[in-house]
Write a structure and sequence with these properties.
Structural class: alpha/beta
Helix content: 40-55%
Oligomer: single chain
Mean pLDDT: 89
Shape: globular
Length: 347
């Protein structure tokens, strides 16, 4: 039977006050549902998936995940229920991927580049100054996605969708005009790329999860970091830091993935519904990231931070670091990595 129009309309009305949910559910119009949500016969026994996510419920990635889950619940007529657990409440960020691989959780979300230590391919979105805009990020993702999917399949995982963060900038508690000004600073790292940036800038990298960032800043364990305006706003870092430098270093992605056995347990119609809604979730999440990108920076400034582009000397030094790291990444990723970068540059 086809999903009824009035059901979709009811869900859209119910969630219209939530901008992320509204974006996705309005995108999930009757024509889209007719394409991805047609199934026949009596409903099968309901499946329930817990989906741990590392970021707080207020973060746009988690809101987008909840909208995705709700759309799946509705579009499958209750055959598949996805329950989102935000803020690392079910599994901590660095535990999520392993939990899904081993079937402790059927689905989950994690920062893609957090797994670069497993395979250089996972760090493709964090090569400094390779893709510095949303348009460029989308092209790089198109070039990289088939290889990412293949790599995940080898790890017992199925990729559903990925959404970029806004461009990454540098947070400090002082004015920084060159890398000489940053030497010796304790720098919060969240993946291999950020740790390498810290080393090349003469800073001391300290691995810290997002949920632990505020405490690290308050206690002096970390004194600076690179991230988007979203992280600064969500964590109210103006209480500890004074400067944000816009450098648009890269746009890292969070990705949602499923345990292979949990995926195989779904019938083909349900899989097609989930795939279709995942495509819409990627689009809706990316749109929201773009919409919020500038707004986050205005909020940092409104709360007392000095928000400005990096000066010419600092930017030039960072671009040289980016060139070094790009070469290192291609060497580590081998022919597959080079093929991705070549395909991206040819677009």
């Amino acid at each position: 039977m086809k999903i009824k129009t009035k059901v979709i309309a009811k869900v859209i009305a119910k969630t219209k006050e939530d901008s992320v949910k509204a974006t996705m559910l309005k995108t999930l119009g009757v024509s889209a549902i007719a394409t991805v949500a047609v199934f026949a016969g009596a409903p099968a026994a309901a499946e329930k998936w817990d989906m741990p996510m590392a970021y707080s419920d207020s973060n746009f990635h988690t809101q987008n995940g909840k909208a995705f889950a709700e759309a799946v619940n509705v579009a499958t007529g209750g055959k598949l229920e996805i329950v989102v657990h935000g803020g690392g409440s079910l599994f901590k960020g660095n535990e999520i991927k392993r939990a899904v691989q081993t079937g402790q959780a059927p689905a989950g979300e994690r920062l893609l580049s957090a797994h670069q230590n497993e395979s250089a391919i996972f760090g493709v979105d964090s090569i400094p100054f390779l893709a510095t805009s949303f348009e460029a990020s989308d092209k790089l993702w198109q070039a990289a996605r088939p290889t990412i999917e293949k790599t995940l399949a080898e790890q017992n995982l199925v990729l559903l969708y990925a959404v970029p963060w806004p461009p990454q900038g540098l947070y400090f508690n002082k004015e920084v005009n060159s890398t000489a000004d940053s030497k010796g600073v304790k720098f919060r790292a969240y993946n291999a790329a950020t740790a390498r940036v810290a080393e090349l800038m003469g800073m001391l990298p300290v691995q810290i999860e997002a949920a632990e960032l505020v405490q690290a800043l308050a206690t002096g364990v970390a004194e600076a970091f690179v991230s988007s305006g979203s992280t600064g706003y969500d964590r109210k870092v103006w209480e500890h830091l004074s400067h944000f430098y816009e450098v648009n270093a890269w746009l890292p992605r969070n990705y949602v993935f499923v345990n292979q056995q949990a995926w195989d347990a779904l019938d083909a119609d349900t899989q097609n519904i989930v795939k279709g809604i995942a495509m819409l979730a990627e689009r809706a999440g990316t749109t929201k990231s773009q919409q919020l990108s500038g707004w986050y920076l205005t909020q940092l400034a409104a709360n007392g931070m000095k928000v400005q582009p990096a000066g010419d000397q600092l930017l030039g030094e960072l671009e040289a670091i980016g060139a070094t790291m790009s070469g290192e990444w291609i060497e580590a990723a081998g022919d597959e990595g080079k093929a991705i970068v070549d395909a991206y540059k040819a677009m």
